[in-house]
């Protein structure tokens, strides 16, 4: 035969040898760091406690609450319809199956927003879409939904609207009796935290 | 009879051109700006390390220029930076973080042994960039706890923040279960305390599919 075939064979062998130098990559598919960084700097992933409360009350079927706190904390208190995926056990196939379902909005919840945000970054690196962070977390939930603060009399209309929604949500979530607006009955508002912008105060 | 058997030289030329093309392709392959240095597992583990963070009272030394290995980067946008920032901080607004020259700058600082402290409006703003930079191998990047807001409230007496926990995150500030329990005189509070509804890991994959 002729040289060319031998030459071609050798060439193929050399190229095949090149694959030896490829590194093994056991990691699941991941988003390019540059794209991830661009997503990270967008604040669109934050949802407020009011929005979450509204979705729960309306029974929004696309809402999926994922609590990233530890199992003990989760047993102690959790939002209705939430599932528990502690941050350190994210990477099990069982837990990952909650993510990336088309048409669902996954909202991460933690004590405040840092752990939830960390979870968000990690799932984003894995390429999951439709994930959000509840801004302020459960601490903010307590302050805004469970014990909403009454805005001052001269508060804006929007503040009053928010407050009345929160009072309704409070009844929904705690079963607390609605205060009768009786003149004689003066409800003592426990003001633990001073905030300037009461109802809309950001957590 | 094949064409190369008629003209072996031609085949050889074509083959050489092919090889040259491959080599050139490999050599000019664009190196990505950043690549993950930590696996997912390592990234999760790293989140529990305290060396990720820089405490507000440590700023005192930086502002007084007692250390020369720490550089502050303000990731808020230029306008807000102009209205006020921590003395000595440089502006590297979040929108510019992906720029090649800024990544190069971070690499240079890492080689020279500088510690880079990022800060945003609050801890949350800096959390994402911190995690990303850590994951792509900038082990010298830290995040200022509390962010600029906390610094601004306490800038006259940063040392006293040692005893404050106002900037700390990641723990419950209230007894949730107690707070959310039905109040006295609740409509539906029976004799027994209402159980907080705990729904555990119910698969909802089903919801995505049809009937």
Automatic annotation (TrEMBL), chain A:
PROSITE patterns hit by this protein: RHODANESE_3
Highest rank taxon of the organism: Bacteria
SMART domains: RHOD
UniProt GO MF annotations: thiosulfate-cyanide sulfurtransferase activity
Gene3D superfamilies cross-referenced by the UniProt entry: Rhodanese-like domain
Residue intervals of the Rhodanese domain: 59-150
PANTHER family: THIOSULFATE SULFURTRANSFERASE RDL2, MITOCHONDRIAL-RELATED, THIOSULFATE SULFURTRANSFERASE_RHODANESE-LIKE DOMAIN-CONTAINING PROTEIN 3
Protein's recorded name: Rhodanese-like domain-containing protein
Annotated source species: Maribellus luteus
TrEMBL record, chain B:
Entries under Gene3D superfamilies matching the protein: Rhodanese-like domain
Location of the Rhodanese domain: 66-160
Keyword NAD: no
Keywords linked to the UniProt accession: Membrane, Transmembrane, Transmembrane helix
Pfam families: Rhodanese
Transmembrane segments: 12-29
GO molecular function terms attached to this record: thiosulfate-cyanide sulfurtransferase activity
Protein name: Rhodanese-like domain-containing protein
């Amino acid at each position: 035969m002729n040289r060319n075939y031998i030459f071609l064979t050798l060439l193929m062998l050399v190229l095949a040898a090149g694959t030896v130098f490829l590194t093994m990559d056991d990691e699941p598919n991941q988003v390019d760091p540059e794209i991830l960084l661009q997503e990270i700097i967008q604040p669109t992933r934050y949802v407020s406690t009011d929005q979450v409360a509204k979705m729960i009350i309306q029974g929004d079927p696309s809402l999926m609450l994922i609590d990233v706190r530890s199992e003990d904390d989760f047993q102690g208190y959790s939002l209705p319809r939430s599932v528990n995926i502690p941050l350190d056990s994210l990477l099990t196939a069982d837990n990952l199956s909650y993510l990336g379902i088309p048409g669902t909005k996954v909202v991460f919840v933690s004590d405040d927003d840092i752990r939830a945000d960390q979870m968000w970054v990690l799932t984003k690196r894995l390429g999951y879409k439709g994930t959000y962070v509840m801004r302020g977390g459960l601490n903010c939930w307590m302050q805004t939904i469970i014990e909403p603060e009454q805005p001052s009399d001269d508060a804006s209309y929007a503040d009053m609207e928010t407050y009345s929604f929160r009072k309704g949500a409070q009844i929904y979530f705690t079963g607390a009796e609605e205060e009768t607006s009786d003149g004689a009955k003066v409800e003592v508002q426990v003001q633990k935290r001073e905030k300037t912008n009461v109802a809309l105060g950001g957590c | 009879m094949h064409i190369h058997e008629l003209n072996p030289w031609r085949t050889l030329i074509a083959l050489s051109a092919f090889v040259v093309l491959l080599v050139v392709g490999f050599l000019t392959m664009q190196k990505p700006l950043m690549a993950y240095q930590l696996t997912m597992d390592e990234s999760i583990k790293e989140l529990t390390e305290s060396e990720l963070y820089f405490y507000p009272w440590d700023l005192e030394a930086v502002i007084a220029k007692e250390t020369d290995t720490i550089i502050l980067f303000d990731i808020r946008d230029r306008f807000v930076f102009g209205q006020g920032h921590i003395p000595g901080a440089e502006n590297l607004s979040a929108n510019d973080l992906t720029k090649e020259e800024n990544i190069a700058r971070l690499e240079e600082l890492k080689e020279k042994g500088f510690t880079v402290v990022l800060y945003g409006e609050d801890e949350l703003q800096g959390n994402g960039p911190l995690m990303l930079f850590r994951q792509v191998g900038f082990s010298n990047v830290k995040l200022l706890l509390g962010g600029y807001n906390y610094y601004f409230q306490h800038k006259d007496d940063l040392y006293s923040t040692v005893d404050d926990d106002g900037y700390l995150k990641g723990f419950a500030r209230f007894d949730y279960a107690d707070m959310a329990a039905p109040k006295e005189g609740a409509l539906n509070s029976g004799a027994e305390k209402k159980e907080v509804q705990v729904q555990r890991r119910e698969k909802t994959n089903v919801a995505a599919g049809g009937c």
